[in-house]
Write a structure and sequence with these properties.
three-stranded mixed beta sheet, 66% helix, 26 helices, mainly alpha
């Protein structure tokens, strides 16, 4: 999906897009470099959106699905080396409660927390991500952009952002959609039926090659079909941009091998926890937080399946922590810990939440905070964590403890992490905070600049690097001649960013 317009009567009466779009495989399309630049322009605005969220736990979950899909697409040849190198292949999470996911130019994908909250398994989410990934790898977006080549990239980008905003607020969306022919262009940017079928076919192959259960595709279609029958109220914008047809549903069902056993689609303990986390983060109102407490204390909860109980208890603990009720949060956590012992991943997620609760409470002495750090692998002898939530929790523990050895250990781990994943803005930000605590202002400013860069905010990055150079050149600055390596890196990065800003200005 590129756009999220509601189909009006006027739009529905227009000729079929399948008769006007280039045939699948037509090479008359925008270059991959041009598509990436347009994607960067749109993603830059999404990162600034108040609904953008970088939750390490949910991000880790989505990446655990996304990365195998990318690997499978490479193996199958759907993702070519050129696109693999030139496109971003980033997922942007949105706090929105609507059930939605969308592909954007240049290899960016958006996922609303509302989607994570309603899927029953990793396989169902993999089916949606595989479908959207295939829209990108099959260059559907480029063909649609080429169809609208009479519009400038700025105009197309503004209309995409407007349609995304319209999925949440029609008035805001319409204000962002520019030009007298905006509605017509929105309709043209919807995928054709042929493209939807191809994304189904390729996405199905990608997700099964990646090891996900094929039934996830069918059960997700069933979910969407049921929502469609209930007269889509707006909570399912995915249905408006990807309308289901009997043909598409039958095609997916026919791809299941004969005799395929019915899979129990009940959520696992781990999935129930993650689904709940998405619900809590997407609706942080005080009333919603209190409702989790009410559900947890309801005696009828004990009659529910373990996964339902785990989800409610996790939500209650998380909500209590955000309401600054640490004692209540710890009580619900204790109940949850007893329930999830049979699921190692759920045990790990519960441990992460326990550390979050302790950090938010700020009612523990340093020794107890260090104990929390040990729960996420923080010790000078422990190996470098392989999971992002653990590393970022270690950073928060280190800052609360404020001990030299602990700060040094976590700083080194963060340095290693960002060297491998330079687009991790939150990791750079925590590294900046640790450098500042260690009284290393130059490195703190440089890391803060890299955090801006990771979210394509070149102007913000340049501002931080200028501040670093001002400090370097200050007459009273002790570090003016102390670290030539840092000074050289800052100078080089400033020149690189200035070039990026010049290119950005040329694009309009």
């Amino acid at each position: 999906m590129i756009m999220l317009p509601t189909q009006t009567g006027a739009q529905a009466s227009q000729p079929s897009l399948a008769s006007t779009l280039p045939q699948l495989g037509d090479g008359n399309e925008m270059t991959s470099s041009a598509e990436r630049r347009l994607g960067d322009r749109i993603a830059r605005e999404l990162y600034r959106d108040p609904d953008f969220i970088d939750d390490p736990v949910l991000g880790d979950y989505v990446q655990g699905i996304w990365q195998p899909l990318l690997a499978a697409a490479r193996l199958r040849g759907d993702l070519t080396p050129e696109l693999d190198e030139r496109f971003a292949w980033r997922i942007v999470l949105g706090r929105d409660r609507s059930v939605n996911a969308f592909a954007l130019p240049g290899g960016y994908l958006g996922v609303h927390l509302g989607l994570i909250a309603v899927v029953s398994s990793r396989d169902e989410l993999a089916s949606v991500l595989g479908h959207e990934l295939s829209h990108v790898t099959q260059r559907h977006i480029a063909r649609l952009m080429s169809k609208n080549s009479q519009q400038t990239p700025w105009m197309i980008g503004a209309m995409i952002l407007g349609a995304l905003a319209a999925s949440k607020n029609a008035e805001t969306g319409n204000a962002l959609i520019v030009g007298g022919q905006a509605l017509s262009t929105q309709a043209q940017l919807n995928f054709s039926r042929d493209m939807e079928r191809e994304a189904d076919r390729v996405g199905f192959g990608v997700m099964t090659q990646a090891g996900f259960q094929a039934q996830g595709f069918v059960s997700m279609f069933d979910k969407l079909q049921q929502a469609s029958r209930l007269n889509d109220s707006g909570a399912y914008p995915y249905l408006r941009s990807h309308p289901l047809t009997t043909e598409r549903i039958a095609d997916m069902q026919s791809r299941l091998p004969l005799g395929t056993p019915t899979v129990n689609n009940s959520p696992t303990l781990s999935h129930a926890i993650l689904s709940t986390r998405a619900r809590v983060l997407s609706n942080p109102s005080a009333q919603a937080m209190q409702n989790w407490q009410i559900q947890a204390e309801d005696s009828a909860l004990m009659l529910q399946p373990p996964a339902v109980q785990a989800g409610v208890l996790y939500g209650a603990a998380m909500a209590a922590s955000r309401l600054r009720e640490p004692a209540q949060a710890r009580r619900q956590l204790a109940r949850l810990q007893q329930l999830v012992t049979s699921d190692p991943e759920a045990v790990l997620q519960t441990r992460w939440l326990a550390v979050e609760v302790g950090l938010l409470a700020r009612d523990l002495p340093p020794s107890k905070v260090l104990t929390l750090g040990q729960d996420v692998g923080l010790s000078s002898t422990a190996a470098m964590p392989t999971r992002r939530p653990e590393l970022l929790l270690q950073a928060q523990v280190a800052l609360q403890v404020n001990q030299t050895e602990v700060l040094n250990t976590v700083a080194q781990r963060l340095q290693t992490w960002v060297a491998l994943t330079p687009n991790d803005a939150q990791a750079w930000q925590w590294l900046s905070s640790i450098y500042a605590t260690q009284n290393q202002p130059l490195r703190a400013l440089r890391a803060e600049a890299e955090a801006h860069m990771a979210q394509l905010d070149y102007a913000g990055a340049l501002d931080r690097l200028k501040a670093a150079q001002d400090r370097l050149h200050g007459t009273n600055s002790r570090e003016a001649s102390a670290d030539h390596i840092d000074a050289s890196i800052i100078d080089t990065r400033r020149r690189q960013i200035e070039e990026l800003l010049k290119e950005q200005a040329k694009e309009g």
